[in-house]
Structure formats: structure tokens, C-alpha cells
Amino acid sequence: MTESGCLIRPLAPSDQIPVMDIFNYYVENGFAAYPERPFPYEFYERMLAGTQGYPTAALESPQDGVIGFGFIKPYHPMPAFRQTAEISYFIRAEYTRLGLGNQMLNYLIAEGARIGITNILAQICSLNEPSLKFHQTHGFQECGRFLGVGQKKQTRFDVVWMQRRIA
């Protein structure tokens, strides 16, 4: 149980609908998620498959059920990069700016460190200023930028890579 009264636990098959609803909200409303159209609920299984052996998280409110989710996944399949992981997490819009992102990040970092992860990478759209600031505030530094490689809603954007050493 977190200080907010929410529970953070591993993702479960039963989280499919709320997780995809949260993700698709960000698909349709801004640049936090890259797809241009919502994904079907079945995409959840593929998402989980990509995190096999790595920590996942469902953020559950006693009143509203799953209000956020996150995971870390391998950055690269080669063994030379086994201590580096990529992080992703999303919180329902009405629950942002309440400290829940901090709790999700801290949980995923602690769980990552427990399995030997020493570096966390975040891939962020250059148009997503709140996420860039959030990560910078939490010890991430920009370590790479791919200029103009993305386009969504007829708007070009950079992909910004940020890194945080955790061990």
C-alpha cells in the first residue's frame, strides 16, 4: 500500500481492459503514446509478453480500481545490455500531479534494482514537456535525441532518450 492509499502490484491478465483504456486515452489525447489509433484490447497480451522476467505494476485505487500501470522491459536482447532496461508508465489523466507517478517510478526502480538492473532508460516525445520535466526532476538526464523522426497528428517530433543510473 502506498502513502496515497493505492496498491502497487504486478500486472495481471484481469487488468487488460483498464490498462488498454488508460493507454488508448494517451494515444488519442496527445503525444505520451506514439500510436495514431487506439490499440485493441488483445494488444495487452503482447505488451505483457515483452516484459517477461521484468517488473510490471498496476496502480490500484480502492475506489476506482486500476488507475495506472507501468513496466520495465529489456532495452536490447543482447546479453551485453542485460543490466539496462526501458521504463514505461501511464496514470489515468485525472490522477496525474498527485504524486502517483513518483510512487510508480520508485516501485519500478526498486524492483528493477532487485533483478540487477543498473540503468533505466526512458523514451519520450519531445512534445511531452510534462514527462521530460518529470524525468529530469527524478534524476534522469538526456542522453540522446533523434531529431524529427516521429510524426503524429501531422506534427513532427524528436524522440528524446533519458537515462538514470540506479546502482
From TrEMBL:
Gene3D superfamilies: 3.40.630.30. One of its GO terms (molecular function) is acyltransferase activity, transferring groups other than amino-acyl groups. Residues 6-167 form the N-acetyltransferase domain. It holds the Pfam family Acetyltransf_4. InterPro entries: Acyl_CoA_acyltransferase, GNAT_dom. Keywords: Acyltransferase, Transferase. PANTHER family: N-ACETYLTRANSFERASE (PTHR43072), UPF0039 PROTEIN C11D3.02C (PTHR43072:SF23). This is Sortase.
